[in-house]
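G., the chain you wanted modeled:
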Amino acid sequence: MIVAVRPLVAVRRAAPFDPDFLEGSGLFWPLRRAGDALGRSEDFPTVQALNRVFQRDAPVRFVPAAPRRRRGHAVDLRQLYDARVTLDGEVPTRRNCWHDFMNALVWGTFPRAKRALHARQHRAIARRVAPGDRTLPTHRSRELDALALLDEGGVAVLARHPEQMRLQLRMPGKGALRSHIASGNAHAVVFGHAIYESLALGVTPAVVGAVVLEHDPAEADVVRAADGRLMQAIEDVATLRSPTELVRVDLGEAEFASRGTGPERPWGT
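Predicted structure as tokens:
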């Protein structure tokens, strides 16, 4: 259940690891395979252990996060987070951190989409930094806003009729997402790792934006389908140019409709 409590940053600092966090919400089902791959633990896994989240060949490796860049020096693009991911295949990760732990689980679940997202963010940032610049731009572009929203608070809604779904989700009132999920005509798959962190800590997610994608009912593995469709949407430079392209959705509807589906059906096992 999603409950509004203290701001996330305050809860994050005080919350110990909960080995049963996956049971806290019906929306966690996409992460179950990656979570199970880590095995049960009473504490946060080590950064090295997080590399077990990948089912197939690992597209990146998790490495301990280094101290922040010293101010006053020229910006080294290769040392920025998205460049590290894109060029070196390294994901700087903090130990004992709910946010980074959820990010690792999302990497293990949606590796193609995550790789595409950070590659596009790297290119977008590189276009805005000139040689010798000592600071990054103070404001993100609209494209970077959209990509950040997807990365942190994104939900993939896979629908048989995506255009119809987009129109219904933008209309006033509630119930469209819930009814489509319950009828089997759509799936809501949480992608944003900040949403998962909020769910684990019992905090209402700050912002949730959905990207509606076409889904072929013949694709039994919904999570793998979401990974592929998200990758395609991210690699299409004509899309995700502004956060207004994402649709606000009620996660409560998605959670209620998802309960009882279990991981077996989405994973096609």
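Confidence is low (pLDDT under 50) at residues 1-6, 259-269.

Shout if anything looks off.
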